[in-house]
Amino acid sequence: MADRYANFANSGPGRAVVKRLGLPDPPRLRRYRPGDPLTAGPVLLGAAPGGRLGEPVGKLLERAGVPVVATGAEGVRHGALIFDATGITDSTRLRALFDFFHPYAKSLHVCGRVIVLGTPPEAAASPKEATAQRSLEGLTRSIGKEFGRGVTAQLVYVAPGGEQSVESTLRFLLSGRSAYVSGQVIRIGAGAASEPADWDRPLDGKLALVTGAARGIGAAIAAVLARDGAEVIALDVPGAGDALADVANRARGRALQLDLTTADAPERLAGYLAAGPHGGVDIVVHNAGITRDRTIARMDESRWDAVIGVNLTAPERVNDVLLDRGLIKPGGRIVGVASIAGIAGNRGQTNYATSKAGVIGLVQATAPLLAGRDITINAVAPGFIETAMTAKMPFGLREAGRRLNSMSQGGLPVDVAETIAWFASPGSATITGNVVRVCGQSLLGA
Amino acid sequence: MADRYANFANSGPGRAVVKRLGLPDPPRLRRYRPGDPLTAGPVLLGAAPGGRLGEPVGKLLERAGVPVVATGAEGVRHGALIFDATGITDSTRLRALFDFFHPYAKSLHVCGRVIVLGTPPEAAASPKEATAQRSLEGLTRSIGKEFGRGVTAQLVYVAPGGEQSVESTLRFLLSGRSAYVSGQVIRIGAGAASEPADWDRPLDGKLALVTGAARGIGAAIAAVLARDGAEVIALDVPGAGDALADVANRARGRALQLDLTTADAPERLAGYLAAGPHGGVDIVVHNAGITRDRTIARMDESRWDAVIGVNLTAPERVNDVLLDRGLIKPGGRIVGVASIAGIAGNRGQTNYATSKAGVIGLVQATAPLLAGRDITINAVAPGFIETAMTAKMPFGLREAGRRLNSMSQGGLPVDVAETIAWFASPGSATITGNVVRVCGQSLLGA
């Protein structure tokens, strides 16, 4: 799991070598600790004329104690550049983006943040507006690739009527929680989200179920949800015994040994949750997943069936039973774990990519149906994450995965976990049907 | 424009060196010439039980003179593997894909074809079906990366009611016309498309306008549309004089010198078309585009304005005037040219990527509005195409662009042109709002 090159590049002598030879320069990413300020410096907030988000965003940043400025001054380093582009109603007005970003492109702190706020093209009032708003995606993804130094860049589409529900997302994106999330497009729907009493413990009083929790990313999810205040049920297969117990103990939660691919597992899980003190569950994270890599020519049917069964069919069956029984409560959150392989496909992973593309389908198909029940469903799609699994990859493949992204390094399990915690927040009630990559803006895609 | 490495790799001694050293192995791609058979061998056609496309597809292939078999035999090489997956209504039935592809994965000719037919997730009858159908994307993209040897793989979603309108797409995908198109998802809508009298001249009797026609990709578009039977108006800026006249002559068409970014250009173009013998135009290809690369920190406003103006605002203005005046006739086709940079973003191209993402927005926002007028609008998104522009790129960047795709080589201008000709076909009447990459399944994406 050690990225020795990144450690070297961040050492005293290493910095000099990296700079002189023009080698990949992986910055030390700023990651979240409770109590940290949201940004390393003031936020420069700009807007195209006629925008509807500049004012509410300015106010919420002030309430959050973040210094906000409207123009930069010589030598001042900004923690973030936020631009409200909702006023851009046709392509001739895109120039406002250049006017804002050109003079301040070099003004960001290391690990600074770029956030462009727009109107979802599908909610625009005219084709001209939809076109201009869609073009924002090209801008933010290019900025993510240009700025380097750990700077992330995102496009956040806020539906008309969603202006008061952006705080959980801005807090996520500004903070070190989103260290390895860049080049993403996030959609916030209309409606009001509730505000947690304590933004450092937004999940206080919530019960969360995490599958595949014994190791790697699953263990990190359990830890982060617990840190954010949730009571955690850490679920894994019976064979994971000791490791699972450790995770549950560290999260001060409960361990549940269950193989979700067995015929009666969803019913048994439902019984367990119904009998618990909460009489249900608030947050369900379908993290359990396996790989059984072979080209399809060399694959046997058991490898195909196992991967589809664990990664896709099991989450479907669990959702069905828990939703049918009303065990996921209003305000509930379902989070799936997809993968870049499910987006771009991958050699040797027809089974895995099929299952993970299916997870995206599950999220997109289910989100509209759950909206009326006040339950959201979203997915993360991890890229190269440093785990025991990636540590076993051949050197060349591993180095390519680590370096071919805007951060020049692999992500950590905690980065995936933080993104899931953002979806899980009460403040994210109007975020549903999203698939957000946790990939450092990997070059790979579709 | 010469890919010397590919020429070497396809030479006698080169083949041996490439094989022994495990170097990238760019196959010589099969490209279309009128009269060519659609495939190099029989099509193996399979289906999951309950599918609705196997039968109509089998019949149309027979009518087209393509041999079709239902099971493979020892030693038989197939020209294509086509699988009707519309019968897959939940994830437990995805196994049918493995059962079809596993035994025949090695049975394809060089430059063979894989086509998976599905139901658009948004038109599925249940969330389970939508999920399973969405998962097909992971499969086809993985197969595209696995099979190599010039084999392409696509997913074609056919809306219920569109079963009789798949022929233009199957002909495009099976033939050498789609040599450099792989890993794509294509959506065919409901409704009937008309059948050209002669599939080798599907554009007979049509008038096509091609902007930026003097060079490179634009010149190839003019030539291909003319070859397919269209009368071509080749448009470019006044400075392109001689080159433009050459293109128009070779296409036996007309040259039109006009700078579309001037205030009165759309009106002048409208006047020209209205006064012509057709009293309008059938096919409009917005190919004119420029790059003015700089990071946004180093860019000046003229570079920003020029790129947005030529690549995005000009097509919008031309569409507005031609559509307002009814000069794009029923059965009309509008085709935009986007770019991988507009999908994934690119360092040094904030202006270009913004404009090209906008072209995608234009297509998606306009398609529903034109459906009632029997006009389609789609876009191609080229990847690395061998042109005078890419020939000037630094060696490392150029080689990366050429090799980092499933074909291990750059595409040719004709590949973009063929894709546009497919959109333009009368047989493609139910294809609208699509953005299809012509990139050899480049690894780059979002």
TrEMBL record, chains A, B:
Matches recorded under SMART domains: PKS_KR
InterPro entries registered for this protein in UniProt: KR_dom, NAD(P)-bd_dom_sf, Sc_DH/Rdtase_CS, SDR_fam
Membrane spanning residue stretches: none
Domain Ketoreductase: 206-383
Pfam family, one: adh_short_C2
Alphabetized Gene3D superfamilies for the sequence: NAD(P)-binding Rossmann-like Domain
Stretches assigned to coiled coil: none
GO function terms (MF aspect): oxidoreductase activity, acting on the CH-OH group of donors, NAD or NADP as acceptor
Family recorded in the similarity comment: Belongs to the short-chain dehydrogenases/reductases (SDR) family.
NCBIfam families listed in its UniProt record: PRK08261.1 (NF006110)
Protein's UniProt name: 3-oxoacyl-[acyl-carrier protein] reductase
Organism expressing this protein natively: Actinoplanes teichomyceticus
